[in-house]
Amino acid sequence: MRTMTGPAASRRVIGIDLGGTKLAAGVVSGDLVVHHRAHRFSRGADQNEILDRLVEVVDELKLQNDGEAPIEAVGMGIPCLLDYANGRAVNTVNLPIKDLPIRDIMNERLGLPVAIDNDGNVAALAEQRFGAARGKRDVLLLTLGTGVGGGIVLDGRIFRGSTGSGAELGHMTTLADGPPCQGNCPNRGCLETLISGTAMAREAKAIAERDADSAFARELAEGRDITGATVTELAADGDLDARAVLEQVGRYLGAGLVSLTNIFNPEAIVIGGGAAAAGDLLLATAREHLDEHGLTPNKDLVELRPAHFGAEAGMVGAAALAFTECLGEPLEER
Amino acid sequence: MRTMTGPAASRRVIGIDLGGTKLAAGVVSGDLVVHHRAHRFSRGADQNEILDRLVEVVDELKLQNDGEAPIEAVGMGIPCLLDYANGRAVNTVNLPIKDLPIRDIMNERLGLPVAIDNDGNVAALAEQRFGAARGKRDVLLLTLGTGVGGGIVLDGRIFRGSTGSGAELGHMTTLADGPPCQGNCPNRGCLETLISGTAMAREAKAIAERDADSAFARELAEGRDITGATVTELAADGDLDARAVLEQVGRYLGAGLVSLTNIFNPEAIVIGGGAAAAGDLLLATAREHLDEHGLTPNKDLVELRPAHFGAEAGMVGAAALAFTECLGEPLEER
Q: Across the interface, do B262 and A297 touch by the CB < 8 Å criterion?
């Protein structure tokens, strides 16, 4: 029996999604509607600057929200391996954060209750409770951004591992002896280094270098940087090089989905993050690979879906976390 | 608060571990002592022959057990993707079993209550409750045999996935575009195809073919087959080729442990199965790889241990399952 209630639509919190490149924050009400938004870059900032920018966006959002229902708490999704019980960011692959008691620091600087969790976990929570995997109990999520985030919901609850630093689905060894992984990860051939936006950009730049007539080379010649978004945009315009990059990424994503499907026998896997904007170009290739290489019956039982909350799944999930952890509001399916 | 009680030592069940090569069965009492044993080969048998051999070993054990406490139930660990609720073996990689309502069939043929589960799951249960990972709540197990079995215990309970066909840890894509996997698995570069006993034998045979002076070539010349056991025995005798095979397998095992440690943030990973007889030759290499390539803090928090029940973990776990599922005896840590 699932109740049809959730946090009151009249209550408001701030949800923050701290990514390896960008920081997205929003004022979110109990019905998970986003009322105000604020953004910053996170790339290039050191640990103290990141903390400052987190405080800045909260101040900016409070100002935007002035005169409306008050902000009662802040939830943050951060791309870190966490000591969950102590609200501590132990280690992170794509940001310069290490051994930081971030929950207590933010709590003190903001004067508000603060809840933190891994960014993939909160995005998975949002999608399982209110998004693309609503009604399913065993759900995984991959977010393709600067890195590859992972979230695991088992029997309706976030799975964090024994201390809170699990669900690093981007760091499965997928191509042993492959290229070194990104950032602070000491592994080779991680899924992240094969399918993240960073990986897409790396492949695109390699093409630009090989072929001066390619659309990627033209982008660089015209002074634009190449990112994962460049690849998905050019692919949508029909550029064959960009499509080839997405197809390769789709196959590696498929190889990762085979692992996850064989391990977890999940009901659904949700694909989110900026790079997932490639949509069918990416997901259709990945699905085909999974159908061909996954074990029966798992591959037939799993649904593959794009994130309902798109690039805002992390932000909405962080808000949902704040409602549950700080305000004690139940987060039931509605 | 954990109780100190368990199934009564006076009650007896039969535990059966059905592997890809061998079938091992034993009469087990509530204190998990094995009183009688029976073995058969499973390799080469078709589905009906396997069922016949399962019935045979139970009859043989009943005879051995005659005059002692009666056999009350049978537990079976089978290397299958299961429909757990219906006791159905849906698919298997290393045996010719498909879509078989094996629990009901065995129940009818044996006239005893029967419980079935994946062989890796029951082995993990035995090790977590009574063996190498006693006292830990989040435990994984890999068994290196004909294939590579996997078992997952989360917060003290077996994790089976949404329908019972999860925990196929041997079928993570570890070397994308690598060699085709074994048996019925349609994937390439699965962990299983890199570290199973079958994989060890394959490598050893390749060496025998390249080098007629190798110890492996001598084994073949003298009419002996090469198996995973050949490799571990020759390595223990100091043969450099055999040690090289184990080192490569150890590195790939390490690559798999990196994935599992990053995903699950477990307290312990237990290594069992025949090939694990290689002991430190294998585990030390794998541990080194994990230390070098795993994410902090997960790699530092996980303990790597050989199976306490050794090659009998599956049998003892199957018996433990029968006590819980068929007799309603609690299986608490003791």
A: no
